[in-house]
Design a protein that fits this description.
Structural class: alpha/beta
Number of helices: 13
Oligomer: single chain
Helix content: 40-55%
Strand order of the largest sheet: 9-8-7-10-11
Number of strands: 13
Strand content: 15-25%
Distance between the termini: 43 Å
Shape: globular
Largest sheet: 5 strands, parallel
Length: 365
Amino acid sequence: MSSASGVQLDTRVTEFVARPRTMLINGEWVPAASGKTFASYNPATGQVLADVAEGDAEDINRAVAAARAAFDTGPWRKMTASERGRLIWKLGDLLDQHTQEFAELETLDNGKPLTISRAADVPLAAELFRYMAGWATKLEGSTIPLSVPYTPGAVYHAYTVREPIGVVGQIIPWNFPLLMAAWKLGPALATGCTIVLKPAEQTPLTALRLGELMLEAGFPPGVINIVPGFGETAGAALAAHPDVDKVAFTGSTEVGRLIVHAAAGNLKKVTLELGGKSPNVVFADSNVDQAIAGAASAIFFNHGQCCCAGSRLFVEKSIFDRVVEGVSEAASKIKVGPGLDPSTDMGPLVSEEQMNRVCGFIESG
């Protein structure tokens, strides 16, 4: 099957998007409890790419229950660190074997150029799993020498032990869908946690396909559960769930604040990676040509859709005009087009909502 840009797509990709996508709970692919689905759009065309099960609070309840059972009584807890590491390594190898397929899915769902998905996003995700596989056997505690002045001559044995925290809720954004899934999953799996992952509603497809590879790799049921849905329903339910021990979130500062409040119910641990206004500073004694290239890459890479995009540029006055002209020239050479077009440098923004936010920022700025 050919895409709108004339690129011949991997048959596994066309078959994957043609079937309604369900959610992974306790090792089974199941529809949403409500029966609802939502559309995942191709940002290059605006057309519906796939229909995906719409998870809500009931689905989160089912997924958390599966993760809790897998952590408390399942085989995952009884596995040695070496056994866990081998499974994670196998997942990385499987991902490598499906590089083209995942790259095309990522580009269709997110819009980024296929050349970037294939050269960076997929290989980095595979390498992340192999890196974390090695850590599974390297996590250790320590003994602590104690000297207590009011008990002279007494000998104490004090030590720390690193243990998995339990059930981890993970909420990822749409700018690097596969990489964000890998960055969240890898460390939690290496430490022996079980997971409920909610991918961004704009880009759920590579996370769901990754779930299929995890089953193929042999992860026990309930260790990884994937519930697509919207932040206001599935995401909010996951952040507030009393049986979730930790929430890891990457996304907007606004939503991060909401997650902190939602997590207060059972004092669950929270890790936040939020957006910012990251400044680049260029001084006159720098290599100006390199600084121009770096500044342009910092703001335009991944269409500017990065948590640490260089969205502010401070330049010493004596070279201000030169730097501005250089960055402007770099921007003028960027070819915008469909991500599947081999000549495209910059694909479309991920969604109409994101485009409206960017336009509103430019108008107000």
